[in-house]
Amino acid sequence: MSDVPPQSRDDTVAWGIASHGESRWPALVAVLVAIVLQLALPDSLIRGLGNRALIPALEGVLLLALLIANPGRISEEESRLRIVGVALIALITVVNLVSLTELIHALLYGGKTGGRPLIYASVPIWLTNVIVFGLWYWELDRGGPALRRQTHHRRPDFLFPQMSTPGSAPGWVPDFLDYLYTSFTNATAFSPTDTMPLTAWAKLLMMLQSLASLVTVAVVVSRAVNILS
Which of 26, 48, 110, 154 could form a disulfide with 176 if both were Cys (CB 3.0 to 4.6 A apart)? Predict the structure, then answer.
């Protein structure tokens, strides 16, 4: 009988390693930054949402609820908290989508008067786009940060470089910063770079983010050239 070594366990390391339990603080700080960016937008870009202070106040309440309920590491038993987290991310997404729609309308059909402030306002919208999709990737990959702690979690929705070559980083697992970086590179390059989407929803989300980023940049740049000329 030949001395054939047992099958390599690289697949187990790359695909099946459980998360060490993430801290909620990076995501909470990102949400807080997104709320501040919304407050920096001109009134004309959020008029479709009614009272200017209502949405940030609601987002602040949801953020405070998460902070009070579990400010430390995320545990496996957090189904209710996850609903609050998803609702908060969805709310920020809707606000940013409305602001982006208003921005595009104002830049396309508005005169040169007030054009520069609108171009400046595109920066918070683009940054919020990066933050909110980073939050979506972090919250949905493998069922969320709580389910990623389980040994038998589902297969990943994103393929990170360290997962392709597990020997380069033994025991590595993604955290919020990795998802935020993935969101930034996707919004900048308008396509995946070093991290590949594996599932249908991951591909759809990255496609929507690339589209939003491309439209923002294309419309703003073309309007800026028109104003400067």
Answer: 26
Task: Please state the domain extents for the chain.
Answer: 21-148+176-228
Residue type, 109: Y
- b/e 138-175 (16+ beta carbons within 10 angstroms → b): bbbbbebbbbbbeeebeebbbbbebbeebeeeeebbbb
For 110-199, where are the alpha helices, taking DSSP H only? Answer: 115-140, 161-164, 176-189
Structure confidence by residue, pLDDT tens digits, 127-171: 999 999 999 999 999 888 877 777 777 788 998 988 877 666 677
Label residue 213 exposed, middle or buried (CB < 10 Å: 0-12, 13-18, 19+).
buried
- The residue assigned the tokens 């038993």 is 77
- Asked if pLDDT for residue 74 goes beyond 70, the answer is yes
